[in-house]
């Protein structure tokens, strides 16, 4: 029996901003079977990770200029995680949080700084199922979102029909350029960026620094990187359990004691 509500409530966020084409394609695809609310940053917030704004007020503004039609869409002058917090608290608790479709993949270690994945993580931290969607560009840096948005809607619906996801778990989905050659359920790869710090001078002769990263990864067909290299959609279940439980006893063995004050 399906667990899908008649019209499930879906909160959609991203890190590319309210005007990005990927979030619009995703919202229209999911709106075919769900009541969608879009809450996204007012400007691009790529690479901000799971930052939360708490030292200044946030603005939550309805916008029609982004072209979502009848879908309620709100812009926030904060991070992707802020968008999920405000969306859940100001628009009502959804059945699922969906993030993306990001311009560019989020593979391996990218998850630690990805704003796209951070929005999904915030949904998980609020006790909601969540999915993050990202896409690799095609030749010439162009993006075609129709096929990826339709697949994202199908997967979102399937997760809802199955009753959600296990606690503390999200799905990280990466799309290769279309057309797709299949779907693989994968593990995270060792994909990372080798950073280079460039030193330059501004027009007044003062030094400034620019961090530039070169992507690196080893191919393995059971990883997210391997899947998109082979033209397949990668679906990776990610569990937010950071404790290295297999090391607890070992760490206890070498952890020094502290002096305990005598009771008076």
UniProtKB/TrEMBL annotation:
What does the function comment of this entry state?
A: Nucleotidase that shows phosphatase activity on nucleoside 5'-monophosphates.
State the name under which the record lists this protein: 5'-nucleotidase SurE
Q: Which cofactor does it need?
A: a divalent metal cation; Mg(2+)
Q: Which GO terms describe its molecular function?
A: 3'-nucleotidase activity; 5'-nucleotidase activity; exopolyphosphatase activity; metal ion binding; nucleotide binding
Give the UniProt entry's GO cellular component terms. Answer: cytoplasm
Q: Where is the Survival protein SurE-like phosphatase/nucleotidase domain?
A: 10-194
Listed InterPro entries:
SurE (IPR030048), SurE-like_Pase/nucleotidase (IPR002828), SurE-like_sf (IPR036523)
Q: Where in the cell is it found?
A: Cytoplasm
> Where, in this chain's numbering, is a divalent metal cation bound?
15-16, 46, 102
Report whether Hydrolase shows up as a keyword of the record. Answer: yes
Superkingdom of the organism of origin: Bacteria
State its Enzyme Commission number(s): 3.1.3.5
The note on cofactor binding and number reads: Binds 1 divalent metal cation per subunit.
One Pfam family per UniProt = SurE
**What reactions does this protein catalyze?**
a ribonucleoside 5'-phosphate + H2O = a ribonucleoside + phosphate
The UniProt entry's sequence similarity note says:
Belongs to the SurE nucleotidase family.
Record's keyword annotation contains Cytoplasm: yes
Note the Gene3D superfamilies from the entry: Survival protein SurE-like phosphatase/nucleotidase (3.40.1210.10)
Write the record's keywords in alphabetical order, separated by commas: Cytoplasm, Hydrolase, Metal-binding, Nucleotide-binding
**Source species of the chain:** Deinococcus maricopensis (strain DSM 21211 / LMG 22137 / NRRL B-23946 / LB-34)
